[in-house]
UniProtKB/TrEMBL annotation:
Region described as Disordered: spans on this chain: 124-150
InterPro entries documented for this protein: Cyt_c-like_dom, Cyt_c-like_dom_sf
GO molecular function term, any single one: heme binding
Membrane-spanning residues: none
Organism, as annotated: Pandoraea cepalis
Protein's UniProt name: Cytochrome c domain-containing protein
Keywords linked to the UniProt accession: Heme, Iron, Metal-binding, Signal
Biased composition (Polar residues): 136-150
Residue span(s) of domain Cytochrome c: 29-128
Signal sequence residues: 1-25
PROSITE patterns, per the entry: CYTC
């Protein structure tokens, strides 16, 4: 004879026992879950992109997007895509804290906490390194309108 599992349930009120019940269960070869129906765990999914970090990073792309069409033919700042996160994090913290010389970046970074800067740096590090557009400024063209002396 195999051992069985028994459980008793006793419902009481302040004045005494209202009802009793006993449940019997057959032995189980390995407990799988606390619910009566076993559900296989879901397969691990690929991590979701950090959309908030992407939104923050878009502000950086105004000046640092070397591969964008608006940068074609213009001298741009260093591209951030594909750079190591630790390198970016160190630079961002130093500019924010005033220990690295910069013009506009200290003002732009003042509102960011370290965890937010880390997320931005991680976002850029996860992006494929972009191809730089022409980094030399365009040569000004001569005016096509004839100039008349005054």
């Amino acid at each position: 004879m195999t051992p069985a599992i028994a459980a008793a349930l006793v419902l009481t009120t302040g004045t005494g026992v209202v009802a009793t019940a006993t449940a019997w269960a057959a032995p189980v070869s390995g407990v799988r879950a606390a619910s009566p129906v076993y559900v296989e765990p879901a397969a691990p999914q690929a991590p979701q992109p950090d959309w908030q970090a992407r939104d923050w990073a878009m502000a950086c792309m105004t000046c640092h997007n070397a591969s964008g069409p608006v940068s074609a033919g213009k001298a741009t700042l260093h591209a951030l895509d594909g750079r190591p996160a630790t390198e970016l994090m160190t630079a961002l913290q130093a500019m924010r804290d005033g220990t690295r010389a910069a013009t506009l970046m200290p003002q732009l970074l003042k509102g960011y906490r370290d965890d937010e800067l880390r997320r931005i740096a991680t976002y850029f590090a996860s992006q494929p390194a972009g191809k730089r557009a022409s980094a030399s400024p365009r040569t000004p063209q001569k005016s096509r309108t004839p100039q008349t002396p005054r």
